[in-house]
Amino acid sequence: MNWFKKKFEQFSEKLNADDTSFGPPEKKLPEASGNTPGIPKAPERAASRADNIEELKEITLGAISQTVRMLGYSKTVISGLVFHSAFKDNAIENVGLMSLVKDPQFINRIKREFKSRGIACKEDLSIDVKHESPDTATVTAITDGIGVEVLTPKDILKKQRARIVATEGITWEPEYILEPSGKHYFIGRGKDPKIENGPKIHNDIAFVGIEEKNEEQYKINNFISRSNAAIVFDKEIGAYKLFRSKFLNNPSNKIKVFNASLDDFSGISLSNATVPHILKNGDSICFNDTIVLEFQLLES
Questions:
Q1: DSSP code of 191?
Q2: In this structure, are residues 217 and 256 in contact, taking their beta carbons and an 8 Å threshold?
Q3: pLDDT-based confidence at 9, cuts 50/70/90?
Q4: How much of the chain, in percent, has pLDDT values that exceed 70?
Q5: What domains appear along the chain, each with residue ranges and CATH number?
Q6: Do 180 and 232 meet the contact criterion of CB atoms below 8 Å apart?
Q7: Is residue 150 predicted with pLDDT exceeding 70?
Q8: Do the beta carbons of residue 232 and residue 241 sit within 8 Å?
Q9: Is 252 exposed, middle or buried, given 0-12, 13-18 or 19+ CB atoms closer than 10 A?
Q10: In a 10 Å sphere around its CB, with 0-12 CB exposed, 13-18 middle and 19+ buried, how is residue 266 labelled?
């Protein structure tokens, strides 16, 4: 990787020198007129920016090749690549990387490289750049602060985000975005309710409680408990799970999941706090036959 680091540093130095739009403005020098003594000639530009981008392509392609060298002739299918950068989006390093992900010829070169190594990849290979990424040190390094990650279909699932929207009942936020981080997203009435004979908790998906806003429109939310359920992402299977709350002691308090898009109208009941339901795209989570949350998977 020392070679990659050296070449990338050379590239950055050239690009900084070649394009003054990324740094302080050049000091204008008087134009040379013949051999007039004391007047310096205007500086000539170094190699073109396009040449430097070509150099970046070679460095990056080499790093990708190093990343996938152990996957040759296996059953692994590559779904995408993510470049992780520790720098801000307007940094010179990111400007170069962004030019690559928008270059269809470079993407085709990557696919040919995979093919030459006997590695299968999706035709619609996704390539992305994450600015100021906290994961730079955990992926294959190109140089300090820059790395590349190879994604398989299973890896894509592990990065799957989801959206929760209330279609019946009123939540504090119009929608809630779930991240595949292993965090428990608690669902209930009120932002920070006190459980009867229990602790004070925080609801990540919170319905407006009549205790918080004593208005007629929020009375519908009385059909949901202070702590009703929780959603957590399971990295082992790459899916979100819905659990009945451990604080929901009343067995008559119903939680059912339907999915009209899959012709599932009978629904699945959650009556045991230790037995979860694996959520599918389009699931409707119904509380006490009244309050409804819609679960949607977002594109990776």
A1: S
A2: no
A3: low
A4: 82
A5: 2-26+45-158 (no CATH), 162-297 (2.60.200.20)
A6: no
A7: yes
A8: yes
A9: exposed
A10: exposed
Residue 11 pairs with which residues in a beta bridge? none
How many Å separate Cα 267 from the centre of its chain?
31
Is the pLDDT assigned to residue 218 strictly greater than 90?
yes
Q: What are phi and psi of 122, to 5 degrees?
A: -70, 145
The gap from C-alpha 230 to its chain's centroid, in whole angstroms, comes to 22
pLDDT in tens, 158-172: 788 999 999 999 999
**Residue 132 CA: distances (Å) to CA of 18, 93, 106, 258, 264:** 25, 11, 24, 39, 42
Q: Of 48, 68, 55, whose CA–CA distance to 96 is shortest?
A: 55
Question: DSSP assignment, residue 32?
Answer: P
Do 108 and 114 touch, CB atoms closer than 8 A? no
Specify the DSSP element, H or E, that contains 78.
strand 77-85
Whether this prediction's pTM lies above 0.85 is answered by: no
Half-sphere exposure of 9 (CA within 13 A, CB side): 8
Q: Which residues make Cβ contacts (< 8 Å) with residue 290, sequence separation at least 6?
A: 168, 169, 220, 223
